[in-house]
Write a structure and sequence with these properties.
five-stranded mixed β-sheet, alpha/beta, Nucleotidyltransferase, domain 5, 51% helix
Length: 163
């Protein structure tokens, strides 16, 4: 199974692709889609959704794992991210790709075993789990790979429970 992980953001949307056979992870590729701050928001959101669709096709993704919206105090900073999520959900739906949304707490728990793990801990565990020589850069790409691991871990656990 090929999993596309997405860490949504307006300026930087991280993506990562991982192959999972039910037991083993194989990192395939990762990167970031950047949009310029001066560009029209509609154009930026369209670009992100279209580019994510191209990544899904290029690597043959069969499922998408995406971090869901999260905000604590400033809802206005969360609104552009929510728009990116919505446009991406629309694009993946057009492509017939199932999308699974996970909270930051779920992702951290799946990757590190601790829901309150620091960003550096999550990134180090991504490196270890995927057997990479170094922590993936930029941070948004590492976060997208963590999304992949979260989906695979959840799927694996679900399979064990249903047996």
């Amino acid at each position: 199974m090929i999993v596309l992980g997405v860490d949504p953001g307006l300026a930087d949307t991280g993506w990562g692709v991982v192959e999972f056979d039910g037991q083993h992870y194989r990192p395939v590729s990762f990167g970031v889609i950047k949009t310029p701050a001066g560009e029209d928001m509609q154009r930026r959101i369209y670009t992100i959704a279209a580019d994510l669709g191209e990544v899904a096709v290029k690597y043959g993704a069969s499922v998408v794992s995406m971090e869901d919206i999260f905000f604590t105090k400033n809802i206005t900073s969360a609104i552009p991210v929510a728009k990116v999520i919505g446009a991406s959900l629309f694009r993946f739906s057009e492509m017939g790709l199932p999308v699974h949304l996970f909270s930051p707490l779920q992702i951290k728990t799946a990757v590190t075993g601790m829901g309150r793990a620091e960003k550096a801990q999550v990134q180090e565990m991504v490196r270890v789990i995927l057997r990479l020589k170094s922590i993936p850069k930029p941070d948004h790409a590492a976060d997208a790979l963590a999304d992949c691991i979260c989906y695979c871990s959840t799927l694996s656990l679900k399979g064990k429970i249903e047996v």
